[in-house]
Queue: 3 jobs
Job 1
Amino acid sequence: MDPVKLSHFLAVLETGHFARAARQLGLSQPAISKSIKALESSLGVQLFQRGQYGAQPTEFGNRLARHARLIVAEGALARAEMDALRTATAGHLEIGASVNFARDILPAAIERYRRRWPDVAISVDVGLSSSLFNDLLNGRLDFVISAPPTTLKIDDGLAQEYLLDEVDTFVVGSEHPLVDQPEIGLADLLAFPWVVPKSGGRWEQIHAIFAASGLPPPYRLVRTESTVLALRLLSHGPYICLLGRGIFAPEVEAGRLTELRLPHLIEKRPAFLTTRAHAHSRLSAVNMITILRDICRKPRAD
């Protein structure tokens, strides 16, 4: 299948309209229509239902979408590799990482990588696994390192390799009233406000912890996806948050935050290296992955 026609197909799929796809690609609408018709003819199926309100993908179109993204992404990677070889430049590396990895492991990996390959341009996107996986499927990232929620469905176009367990625990400011309390029960945590994510695996994790003890979940909430805001709130008020140790370790060392003494409630989640399945990684990514594997194999303090 022609990657150019597939890129036209994806533009129509994402914009929902032939005219919008044409504007996005800098082409005429007849050129896009001709390209889609040629693709449909070569496959022997109809990919879109065309109407006055736009273009809706048929079942064939939806089935083709994942394969098209992989083919277009691999084509882009191949061109980048050829350009790097032709121009004798070192190339670049696009990494997706969870906050825990960005704070705890990735800095050491990048520093080691830089010493060996100083001319490679490195870009890091930090965010939630779900959005990072979409960027990976679309070819915008070389790989993702994260601990996705167990409830997150992993696309068949992705492959995962276990790296390590991330440790989540309850965190408060160093002046929090619970710090000096000799014994802390789960019910004690409900008396204080919480900083929680708007949605996703960690909020479900909090629900599950309280439900297992027959308790309602926290209800005095500040909802945010910003780790920076969460850390600031913990430092300035009686908030409680469930965080990965890699995120708050520097704050503990600085004396601003404290881990609550609830060892029976410490949660471990598997973290993975996620790549595109059945795809060849470029050399710059292979080299970084090798370093990450080595760092993750080394024992870490719990």
Job 2
Amino acid sequence: MISNSGFSYTQPQLQEIAADILKYARKKGASACETDISESFGQSVSVRKGAVETIEYNRDKGIGVTVYLGQQRGQASTSDFSRAALKAAVDAALSIARFTAPDPCAGLADKTLMARDCPDLDLFHPWDMPVADAIALARRCEEAAFAVDPLIRNSEGAGVSTQQSHFVSANSLGFVGGFANSRHSLSCAVIAGEGDTMQREFWYDDRRDAADLTAAEEVGRIAGERALARHGARRIRTREAPVVFEAPLAVSLIGNFVQATSGGALYRHASFLLDALGQPVFSPVVSIGERPHLPKAFGASWFDGDGVATQDREVVIDGVLQGYFLSVYTARKLGLQTTGNAGGSHNLRVKAGDDDLAAILKKMDRGLLVTELLGHGVNYVTGDYSRGAAGFWVEKGRIKHPVQEVTIAGNLRDMFRNIVAVGNDALPRGAKHCGSVLIERMKIAGR
């Protein structure tokens, strides 16, 4: 078993490696340089029908180096931390830069934008989990799912995972930052019924601190109840109707929004939300904030991949887009300022409404509750959206029967603008938080 105190390198040692890289790059003629050094390890266990399926250990480390010769840029990487390998990586990056065309947008961020004070965000919580205990925990999770009902006759397994990592980022402007973080999870997937009536469902929880995880028996019970509820699913006739995205799936809509407002999509003109800044892109019930400094949160950080300081901000207020997601490079391509989002968004939170899922279904009255999405049918250039779906048909605000083998379709531009309600049932997992979402109308293709 890998020791939870067993990082091969300390933070000061990673910082020393970074300093050596920057010093050597300057010596070899680089006008600027940045580097990222990381190390991680973990353990994953899965069981199926009580028998151990897999026991996996992972340990990884790596160094990425980016050098600049004016506006020429070169990148190289290595997993070898020896001094000879570090020098070879810098030399390789410089060689690439010499043969690269100048890019007027290339280069480090302005020094004044760099993060300076980086207090502890409580992101590192080692989990001392011997493999035998992990196996026992996974078994308890799966047993709880089977105990829900005799109709739950098969399993895709239950799993326990613990991962730990730390890193250091540094550049030639004097920025140095880094921290350790952890991620622990419990999951279970089971099958209700048999033959042509089989229905699969799952549940999981994911936290920085294992002490915050939902109990294994509860994860298993929820997985079992969700599978049982899907038993007897059938198709429905093609129609247009309101659609509710259950909270675990509603976050995917926020992911679609982030992709469409990211700098890379915008400067390539590959987004349906081009030139949308200051415009209503959601209905007035939607407000989205970015909160990078929340303790224990996924996506929390005092700086982004460019070393730029992150900050709380309102991305959407009452449906109106207040800001994009930009790195230094993509901001320059667009003639804008970086938003501190090199590497992605930081802990997005959609403002919750007053209703739980039951109240949202009553508000919908008649329509489709979607609990599973299949495929990746999203065109970010046009906004066209089409995905396979499963869930439940709702009549008079109550679930009537499970639904399978349908396709829901629309356009994200219309879907965002036609959000009627956002629930207060957001799950405390992941880096995007959003309650269930009611969309006024979508196309549903079935029989």
Job 3
Amino acid sequence: MRRNRLFVLALWILSLVGISISGGPVTYGFFYAVTLIPIISLINIAAVVSQYRIHQTLEGKYFTSNEPIPFNFTLQNETFFTFPSLRLKFYTTFSTVNDFDDTKEFEILPDTGIKKRTTLVCKYRGVYEVGYKQLEVRDCFHLFCIKIKNPETLKVNIRPKLFDLDSLKTLSISKLSKASSYNFSEYPDVLTREYQEGDSPKLINWKQSARQQKLMVRSMIGDIQQSVSIILGSQRDSMDNKVFLPLENKLLEIALALTNHCLKKSTPVNIFYKQDELHSYFVQDSISFQSFYDELSIMQFSTGYQNDDTIYLLSENPALFNSKLVIFILPKWTVADQVLMEKLQKYNIGTKAYIVCDSQSDYTQIPQSQIDLTLLTSGAKLEEEL
């Protein structure tokens, strides 16, 4: 394009020199013709910009990350003149339009157009723009280019992908969740009820009994005693969506995959995460799992949801200390996490931690004997690494 402009400028200077030296109808005609070229180019671009029509749609109601979404795209020329050179640009940071080359230039004849039925793949969970981003319009002489941003962008709400894993390389639910049902003598404020005739003396909570001035026993409700607890971090440390979208997507994928795996092992799961307040979600069957999936799909991450605050709220939580296994799924590991894990281990509760980060060097100094830690990057393939 720059070469074309230099070429036209050279012709215009040459024509100007010609009329200065000799004049005449041929020389003046050449001068006027060259002078009109950029004017015609601008008129051509203005006409295309005012007449082009673009339409794009996605088929479906719910969209999942890394799953193909039917995508329909139409670029139409309804005029009597040709669109000489158009180039389409798509959002590519978080999504990909399959079978469409956005480096290719199109010439569209009158009453014709481009109709494309293909698929679009969104990489991460979240709300962001996809599809057609910008149209580049060039004139017939390739002297100028105008870039027009899409005034009506296509925004989608993508849900995290659910991985159905038959087995886990990094965790054995049955092996790590064999804490004794009666090893609760020092538990802080576990779920209790009033003593009834026939209850085992081993279940008496002397601390609560002293407070209530009557015998209190630890609740042995099966679902509570046999559940696995998951602590899911909701802290956001970066405001750059190129950083936080991949990381948060992976945290949610891990939580969903582990919950689904536990249910396949007939083990209910209690999930804890921070929003405006501490949330907990008890998943015990396919119906509650679907509700949990919907809830997790709209879960918010924030710089205000500090992980230490979540750990503090959980440090005396009865449901957590009635778990047989506690799994940490976090964007980073802190001293507060370490203290809670050691407290859980003191009561013979199995523990496991998954940290999603792209700077794994920060965790090389953690003694593996103190923490069962698995580091995963935001681009990790769970079916291979989990």
